[in-house]
Write a structure and sequence with these properties.
The protein is of the alpha/beta class and 574 residues long. It is 38% helix and 19% strand. It has a domain at 153-377: Aspartate Aminotransferase, domain 2. Helix 10 (204-214) packs parallel to helix 11 and helix 17 (409-428) packs parallel to helix 20 (538-549). The protein starts with 5 loop residues before the first helix and ends in a 6-residue tail after the last helix.
Length: 574
């Protein structure tokens, strides 16, 4: 992995996923002088950033107890830009949004994690060709969802290993569309074609399962994962690996701040056994739900102790693969995913990268057990919609990726850091009025304000009696206000002895996991999640704040029921 901009990458790496304190905790109880100096500098930066965040709201009151008491958008933005002057330097993002993503003027999309391939305006150009409109024989057509796709996927009954052999031998015969997208994505992900094979999969979960079906768990018996939430892809990998004889372990996270239990994870990584075939270490650099970040040096420690490393890059932001640490470190496997159009078309595909020097260890599993490898197929367009020149021009562009490239790592990460910390601070300032115990409206799981927190936040809302509001209900009411949020499930909690009694009070059970080797109840917490994307702006997070503040009204949910009953003359469950 080669970094085209080492200076830019170094800045983001130091303050982002590769924190200096993590190096000390992983490798030595005593830090060298240079490391101590670096930690001091980082602490100072964290302090100043926290102070700026706390001053980014009007100092009217410590807490807001009524949604009508919130400062207006204009006043809030004025305080925001004074606290974060660097935000004004990210105006290029706003220009791209206004020109290429016009559909976001009325809709707030905070439920996307990942990278979009194309822009909304690009999709619109595919639906309407101005050159054809001037023709006397032109008849406007309403295109259905399928016809607006840039490409389709076609499933292939082939194993992972045989597909890599095919790629090596038949690269020159690969379809033009697939070849172009492969090269474009590998360049965007900062991955060299000389070092890695790349396979298209139907989605993220398919990529995880394909690797599990092919990894030699018979000899490399262990699977170790680092996730504070339930991931469909990881679940698919765990299920498949257990069938093939794997022993599965998971990292744990301290309640309630979701800090990684480093000592326990280190012990699992250093476990006794054959150093040359420990197994597969599955590692995301950050949680896609809580925003917690972890040092990439965990991957180094795992490799040094005989593990193969799978880097889950699905939760990484655009250009994060250009950070200095990842430019130097080459995992054995890497998984990422792409959707088509932000806020409009979430369909897309997954990508599984296999390091060429590691590929020989994979088993040649049967095609029937590895359904998920796909080909990208050109979506045929009827000649009475587009000219051939227009079709070619559009199909060669991945404007979503182009936008990320033009903005760059530092600008993207700076903007996301500012926006996520503002909204975390704003949400934390909401408290129920006249509450005997001073109940906060919101509980945030994971890091609070922090210079190096990730661009997503997991939270729950509680009524004035302290009872949790169903996350699915919050999501549905948000949708009615043109705000898209996600729901998820946090898990793998660790409680200190002195607060062990909180486990039964706080955690929820999802039911029995009825597997032969795993008959237990899975405990965790259902949460609401908001994620900052490439083109999220201040208006978006202010609207989220305003929506959440409405739950300060004890009758808000009931009012919504009656409102929809009056409008639709029917009962709608919310």
């Amino acid at each position: 992995m080669n970094s085209p901009c080492i200076g830019e990458a170094s800045e983001a790496c130091f303050h982002g996923c590769c924190r200096a304190p993590s190096f000390v905790s992983l490798h030595s109880p005593k830090s060298p002088t240079s490391t101590s100096s670096t930690i001091t500098t980082a602490s100072t930066s964290q302090y100043h950033f926290t102070m700026a965040t706390l001053s980014s709201l009007p100092n009217i009151t410590p807490y807001f107890t009524n949604h009508e008491s919130l400062p207006g958008l204009r006043e809030s933005f004025s305080y925001f830009v004074k606290a974060f002057p660097l935000y004004s330097q990210t105006h290029q993002t706003d220009q791209i949004r206004s020109h290429e993503y016009q559909h976001l003027q009325s809709h707030v999309c905070l439920d996307y994690v990942g990278i979009g391939l194309f822009s909304y305006s690009q999709q619109q150009r595919r639906r309407f060709d101005p050159a054809m409109a001037s023709s006397s024989s032109y008849t406007p057509l309403l295109l259905d969802f399928h016809e607006s796709h840039f490409f389709d996927i076609c499933y292939k009954a082939v194993s992972l290993k045989s597909q890599m052999v095919f790629n090596r031998a038949m690269m020159s015969q690969e379809p033009e569309l697939e070849l172009k997208l492969r090269k474009r994505i590998m360049a965007f992900m900062n991955v060299s074609e000389d070092d890695y094979f790349m396979v298209f999969t139907s989605n993220q979960s398919s990529a995880f399962k394909l690797l599990a079906d092919s990894y030699p768990f018979q000899s490399n018996r262990n699977l170790l994962t680092v996730y504070d939430y339930k991931s469909e892809g990881v679940e698919a990998m765990v299920e498949s690996s257990k069938k093939r004889g794997a022993r599965v372990n998971s990292a744990e996270f301290s309640w309630p701040h979701m800090k990684l239990q480093s000592k326990k994870l280190r012990k699992m990584v250093l476990m006794r056994g054959n150093k040359n075939n420990k197994g597969l270490f599955v590692f995301p650099l950050q949680s896609r739900m809580t925003g917690s970040r972890y040092s990439y040096l965990w991957m180094s420690l795992a490799r040094e102790n005989g593990w193969h490393v799978l880097l889950d890059a699905c939760a990484l932001g655009p250009k994060d693969m250009e950070t200095l640490g990842l430019s130097l470190f080459q995992p054995d496997f890497l998984i990422c995913s792409f959707f088509k159009v932000f806020g409009e078309n979430p369909s897309g595909f997954g990508c599984l990268f296999v390091k060429k020097t590691t590929s020989s260890i994979l088993d040649d599993s049967t095609p029937a057990s590895t359904i998920g490898i796909v080909s990208l197929v050109q979506n045929p367009l009827r000649k009475d919609e587009f000219s051939e020149s227009k079709k070619s021009e559009i199909d060669d562009e991945c404007r979503g990726l182009d936008h990320a490239d033009s903005l760059g790592l530092v600008l993207i990460s700076t903007r996301a850091r500012i926006l996520i910390n503002w909204v975390v601070n704003a949400l934390s300032r909401l408290k129920h009025p006249n509450s005997e115990n001073g109940h906060s409206l919101i509980r945030i799981y994971g890091p609070k304000i922090g210079y190096d927190r990730g661009p997503s936040v997991a939270f729950n809302l509680f009524d004035w009696k302290g009872e949790k509001v169903d996350p699915a209900l919050v999501q549905k009411l948000a949708d009615r206000n043109n705000i898209s949020l996600s729901c998820g499930f946090l898990q793998n909690f660790w409680f200190e002895d002195k607060i062990e009694e909180e486990r039964e009070l706080r955690l929820e059970k999802t039911g029995f996991v009825n597997k032969e080797s795993d008959k237990r109840e899975r405990c965790g917490i259902c949460v609401v999640m908001a994620s900052i994307g490439l083109i999220t702006n201040f208006d978006d997070i202010y609207r989220l704040w305003g929506f959440v503040s409405r739950f300060l009204d004890a009758d808000y949910v009931e009012k919504e029921r009656w409102r929809y009953l009056a409008l639709n003359q029917t009962t709608i469950e919310v």
